[in-house]
């Protein structure tokens, strides 16, 4: 029996994780559920999974007997002391940074989808990244492909991108893209922030930086290819020219369950691939003109230091502004670039440094949006 902590249990990653627990009640037990607030969904999950511990970011009055309740920043430190086999981090965005930090600091087994934390803590915690099992589908794919050879024989890793809903849209029409259109991802059903990032291709840019830190591979050896079918999730090329690919229908339960069951693989009700029904696989070069954030992210990654943190925060704020209808789709990369231009900080060495860069970036972002 493996015990699990599900952070972000009410979100897309969290609910899919709980689906796997429902299938394997004899193998998995949820000990902790965590979300931002005590929503009706979290209450339902507490009643169904009867965890020993519950965490919410905002303090609430929790009225369940036999449950220890944690909240706020202090609560995050406390939950990272709990004896739980696997901590699954499905918290969205920069809110996932502190739990990631505390859990890695305590050498806990961390299964994470939260790329923002991996990126923002990359400069200060990369030595601890061996404790991380990725569930971002592309990184899970690369992780699995890497198992087919020796690390020293790897020449390149390739991340695939669906291209999002606007792959074939003429650039002249980008200005009028609505929130509703941007939230319609052709292949994946995900939370709002990551869905908008997929539409701008920033998600792939963030994933390149995530891959750099997770697999300790230089940016020159990380490629992105557009693959609208979303069947090949990631590839690893070895020195002799052999390429190993990870293929499955797009279903986040596959990388989530693999991270939980590793080294076993469990039947989870996913559709199995039928190659003659698929017929062919298509791949294209990314269009950096239409999707400048992918290029910006790669450049920022190469610069390292505080830049990836600024990029992550500026993007999250710009996406929120877009979702709230305050800016246009095409303003997202413009704002991100302007914030990057105005940022200049010392190299981060600690969590406090990272938090201070985040706060300063928020300040710069606010000033820029007030000016415009
Ligand atoms: N969804 C996918 O298929 C997918 C695929 C690859 C990678 N990812 C990555 O996985 C992460 C989660 O994405 P998602 O799509 O699952 O997001 P989501 O559906 O928006 O869910 C976010 C979860 O985070 C919780 N949360 C937000 N702030 C929190 C805080 N301060 N403390 C504790 N919990 C907090 C939310 O709780 P409330 O409900 O209470 O607000 C919710 O449970 C992101 O980093 C994303 O890039 C997602």
Features:
Rna Polymerase Sigma Factor, Chain: A, 3 domains, Rossmann fold, alpha/beta, 372 residues, binds NADP nicotinamide-adenine-dinucleotide phosphate
> What is the gyration radius calculated from CA atoms?
20 Å
The major beta sheet can be summarized as: 7 strands, parallel
Number of domains: 3
Give the helices and strands as they follow along the chain. EHEHEEHEHEHHEHEHHHEEEHHHHHH
Oligomer: single chain
Relative strand content: 15-25%
Structural class: alpha/beta
User: First CA to last CA: what distance?
Assistant: 55 Å
User: Kindly state the mean pLDDT as a whole number?
Assistant: 96
> Strands across the major sheet, in which order?
4-3-2-1-5-6-7
Hetero ligands: NADP nicotinamide-adenine-dinucleotide phosphate
How many helix segments? 16
Low-confidence stretches: none
Anisotropy-based shape: globular
Bin the helical content.
Answer: 40-55%
Overview of this protein structure:
This protein is α/β, with parallel strands linked by helices. The protein folds into 3 domains: 2-134, Rossmann fold (3-Layer(aba) Sandwich), CATH 3.40.50.720; 139-300, no CATH class; 305-372, Rna Polymerase Sigma Factor, Chain: A, CATH 1.10.1740.10. 43% of the residues lie in helices and 15% in strands. The protein has 16 helices and 11 strands. It has helices spanning 12-23, 40-49, 72-79, 97-105, 115-120, 122-125, 137-146, 179-182, 192-200, 202-215, 253-261, 275-278, 292-303, 307-323, 331-342, 351-371; strands at residues 2-7, 28-35, 53-56, 68-71, 86-89, 110-112, 132-134, 154-161, 222-226, 232-238, 243-247. Helix 2 (40-49) links the parallel strand 2 (28-35) and strand 3. Helix 14 (307-323) runs antiparallel to helix 15. NADP nicotinamide-adenine-dinucleotide phosphate (NAP) binds next to helix 1, strand 2 and helix 5.
